[in-house]
What we know:
By secondary structure, this protein is of the alpha/beta class. The chain has helices at about 20-30, 70-85, 115-125, 155-165, 180-190, 235-250, 265-275, 300-315, 320-325; strands spanning about 10-15, 40, 50, 60-65, 90-95, 130-135, 150-155, 170-175, 195-205, 210-220, 225-235, 255-260, 280, 295-300. Ribose-5-phosphate (R5P) binds near residues 138, 210, 234 and 235.
Amino acid sequence: MSEIRLSSEKRLRLFSGRGFPELSDAVAAELGIPLTPTSAYDFANGEVFVRFEESVRGCDAFVIQSHTTPVNKQIMEQLIMVDALKRASAKRITVVAPFYGYARQDKKHRGREPITARLMADLYKTAGADRLMVVDLHTSQIQGFFDGPVDHLFALPMLANYVGSKVDRTRLTIVSPDSGRVRVAERWSELLGGCPIAFIHKTRDPRVPNESVTGKVVGEVDGQTCVVIDDMIDTAGTITKAVDALFAAGAKEVIVAATHAVFSGPAVERLKASKVTEVVVTDSLPIDEDSRFDGLTVLSIAPLLARAIREVFEDGSVTSLFDGHS
Ligand code: R5P
């Protein structure tokens, strides 16, 4: 026999960490494939063990993990999964981290500080990841930290469509909660017909974590429906101070739209106590029943992730998912 048949058939496999299995299930359902059976458990001292129950040789692997609390454990588990896949001869490994932990540590504010967002990228690369898939990074530049392709997906169009369907666009102002997110506010404005934008002049003491001092509203918000946009709500300090400032400046109603509902510590109590009209987030992170409240709307990013995974697997186009333009 003078020839051998080479099979070019690719196999897509989905793997889920234990951070938020319901999101992985939803992505698998969208794709119409099961998650690869995986055993994972913790040793008595907290060390994590993972083993896949089926052969993964030659597959195109997508490893979904939400970097939810306890964030370090979820990240470590995902790294261990990547390592196991590499050692079991997966052909390509994509880390799917809808919320990329440590994204806020993307630069040194003062001397002797780490750049942990970069360290994260290096850890994934070292473990064996070929590419990263993330949603609404804290700052886009983080893409450059990873030595390989990064699929930076945007939940913004989904959030903007939802908000746009509920408000009077002639009385709408998009509000950035700080000067750093004005570009994103402009993108929201484009999607919602060119409404005006405003921003809150926020200052922060880098020595005090999770504490911001909200300054004044820059822009016209009197009588307007304001939509405050942010990448994440962590302790909700930033957002609730922005809501207060906007009402004090005459806003008629204030809607908050953020991709990642971290909801740490006092977040839910602060949001419940604030005069915010509605809080719209995605399910990039789990939100337990106790953290749900009237006026909270959760949109699923599972269809977005599934579409991106399919496009990456089929070498299709994901540009529309990257920049929010269709
Ligand atoms: C800050 O630059 C981020 O974009 C968020 O505004 C901030 O991390 C939210 O944190 P918190 O809810 O604790 O104020």
